[in-house]
Amino acid sequence: MNASNRYDKDIPCEFYKEAVKAWRIIFHSYIPKNVNDIKRDWIYDNVLLKDDDGRIFKPPSNFPPYAPEFFYDLPVTDNPREFRGVYRNLIPKLNRSFFKLSFSNNDKATYYITTSTGIKDVTLCNFSTLYSALLSQRKVSAKPWIAKWEQEGAINNSDWIFVWRNVHHSIISQTVQSSLWELLHRNYMCSYFSKLAFGGDGKCKLCGLEEFERTHIFVSCPVINSIYDHFTPLLNSFCPDQMTLKEKIMGKKLESNKDILGILRNYVTSSIKHVVYRNRNNTFTNAVTSLIKLVKTHMKKDLTYQWWLASNNGRKDDFKNLYFQNNLLGSVCTNDSLSFSFTNI
Ligand SMILES: [Zn+2]
Predict the structure, then answer these.
(1) Residue 10: what pLDDT?
(2) At which of 88, 115, 136 does a domain end?
(3) CA of 268 to the centre of ligand 1 (A)
(4) In this structure, are 38 and 122 located in the same domain?
């Protein structure tokens, strides 16, 4: 464990690799209790043993019989006249370094870790303190999509909590959630990227225009915007707001979890985005008309499934209070079948 980190990458098991990584963060100033604790440690590439310049010792290329390898070989007491080659200088340095080794004289070795509330003795920390201290020392992961959205000014730092709340809202089915997630991560195959990567023509399959950014299909494509126009009366019945660039990207910011009409508006716009996204590589004779039909089919299917689930779980009222709030999206007929408000729009 005191070896330098150059061998860490060779640890085959991910669990032990992560464990060593964590160990290095916590025990960066490890002091052994006594020489017995480390007697079987290799002395080369070992952070406990350093030369006068503070560098660890590199392993020599050959090991003659008198050459030390482990702590229990130190100090080397053979007559220096017997040392050859690199060992002539190396052995006295190793011996000196060995005598400078410091040991913690406590019964219990102490280790320290930097936490948000200062440096603490590891043995006195509870698990959550250790865990959060380790988390805070992790490198910030690169999230290029966040920087891109923020640089473009479409989404600001305080919006992200609402963004993920909308994506993972329970009214949104898992498949739609994954479409929304992929759109926000801007990392999917599209004509714009295929032009960059493979020299394609860069033309959107849906509208035929050239795509100038990856977000074309759900932000600037005339096809999705015509679909939004088509559904405007329905969207306005929930909240009479203009469709903004921000809403196209992240949905409507919900006032609270009781903002059912906002939730329903997001349900419809998310369904539109999902259907358009999943059909972005298909060719249609009339993309707008075909996709509108597909959006309606998608919502009917999803609502019917949710109604079936609710009926079987004794939660019919919950379904009505959410999906069919004010009968805007549809209503339940006397024979328990569903009638949808958007079928003929
Ligand atoms: Zn387009």
Answers:
(1) 87
(2) 136
(3) 20
(4) yes
Ligand 1 mean position to 207 CA, how many Å? 4
The answer to whether residue 94 sits within a structural domain is: yes
Query: Could you tell me the distance, in angstroms and rounded to a whole number, from the CA of residue 222 to the centre of ligand 1?
Result: 6
- Cross-strand partners of 114: 119
Domain of 222 in residue numbering reads as 145-340
Q: Looking at the 3D structure of the chain, how many domains does it have?
A: 2
Q: Rounded to the nearest whole angstrom, what is the distance from the C-alpha of residue 308 to the centroid of ligand 1?
A: 36
C-alpha closest to that of 173 among 313, 304, 315, 282: 304
pTM for the predicted model, two decimal places: 0.62
Task: For ligand 1, an ion, list residues with CB under 5 A.
Answer: 204, 206-207, 221
Same domain assignment for residues 97 and 185: no
**pLDDT at site 196:** 87
Q: Are residues 184 and 298 in the same domain?
A: yes
Residue 219 CA, ligand 1 centroid: distance in Å: 9
- Residue where a domain terminates, one of 115, 136, 157: 136
pLDDT tens-digit profile of 207-223? 999 999 999 999 999 99
Are 93 and 40 contained in the same domain?
yes
Whether 345 is in a domain gets the answer no
Structure-block tokens of residue 16: 């032990």
- For residue 248, the CA-to-ligand 1 centroid distance in Å is 14
Alpha carbon separation from 253 to 156, 208, 246, 321 (Å, rounded): 13, 32, 9, 20
**Would you state the pLDDT for residue 37?**
80
Beta strands in the chain (DSSP E): 112-115, 118-121, 330-332, 338-340
Output the CA 271–ligand 1 centroid distance in Å.
18
**CA of 293 relative to ligand 1 center, distance in Å:** 18
